[in-house]
Amino acid sequence: MSIDLSSSGTVPPREREVEVPPLGLAGTLMLPTAPRGAVFFAHGSGSSRFSPRNRRVAAALQGRGLATLLFDLLLPEEEGDRAKVFDIALLAERLVAAVRWAANEPDLAGVRIGLFGASTGAAAALVAAARLGDRISAVVSRGGRPDLAGASLDRVVAPTLLIVGGEDGVVVDLNAEAFARLGCVKSLEIVPGATHLFPEPGALETVIDLASDWFERHLAGAHEARGAEP
Fold first, then answer.
1. What is the reported pTM?
2. Torsion angle (degrees, nearest 10) of CA 132, 135, 137, 143
3. Angstrom distance (rounded) from CA 35 to CA 38
4. Strands (E), the chain
5. SS3 of 90, please?
6. Sign of CA dihedral 153, 86, 74, 207
7. What is the pLDDT of residues 196-205, one digit of tens each?
8. Which of 116, 114, 96, 101 is nearest to 42 (CA)?
9. Does residue 126 contact residue 179 with C-beta atoms inside 8 Å?
10. The domain at 5-224 falls in which architecture?
11. Where are the beta strands (DSSP E) in 122-170?
């Protein structure tokens, strides 16, 4: 269920424009008061930090008290290079760099980090999660190509949710095959009647609810349980 901050009386998140080192990749960091976790987005091919679908997901996560970072995985001069657009290792390296940058950001000190990947960005998120180990607390793939993560699938330890549209053709089978290879806490959710970009009525809302619940459980819930320990 999405939350309307404008009518809830909740203080809206603070917005920060950032440049992720070492390349200065442009990003937007949204910071609720005392964030309960943070989710970094990896968009798919042909998209950017302005993806309307990812921004809708991010807004819902902010409503649950989670910080979000949407940033461009490529420099402007790289966006027309198809080899780089589909270079999963390169995209994953930039996502890893963003997580390492966050470790030195006072606004994100001590928060658990999750990754949200769409399309090819999902493969990059899984490769990054495999490299970063327990520094990543949850991963969500929306209409993703987790199969493109290759051998990294076997090394992912973060709880992982794969969401795929029931009418997304071969992508459904590719997600099922990738799901079988994951050895972490995992879930595969197939949204009936939905195609690749979830444009059908109610489809993206279902994605938002599934992703928000997953991140709240594995980021915010784990963070609060840890804080309650004597």
1. 0.90
2. -30
3. 7
4. 14-20, 25-31, 38-42, 67-71, 113-118, 136-142, 160-165, 186-191
5. helix
6. negative
7. 999 999 999 9
8. 116
9. no
10. 3-Layer(aba) Sandwich (3.40)
11. 136-142, 160-165
Token pair recorded at residue 134:
């327990």
Tens of pLDDT, residue by residue over 144-196, are 999 999 999 999 999 999 999 999 999 999 999 999 999 999 999 999 999 99
* Residue 200, token pair as written in the block: 């059908």
* Spatial separation of the C-alpha atoms in residues 64 and 95, rounded to whole Å: 23
Across residues 113-138, what is the average pLDDT? Answer: 96
CA distances from 126 to 56, 71, 80, 192 (A): 22, 17, 24, 24
Distance from the Cα of residue 144 to its chain's centroid = 11
How far is residue 230's CA from residue 210's CA, in Å, rounded to a whole number?
A: 31
* Residue 169 tokens, joined: 């053709």
Look at residue 112 and tell me whether its pLDDT is greater than 60: yes
68 phi/psi in degrees, rounded to 5: -135, 145
Average pLDDT, the chain: 90
Inter-residue contact 208 to 60 (CB < 8 Å): yes
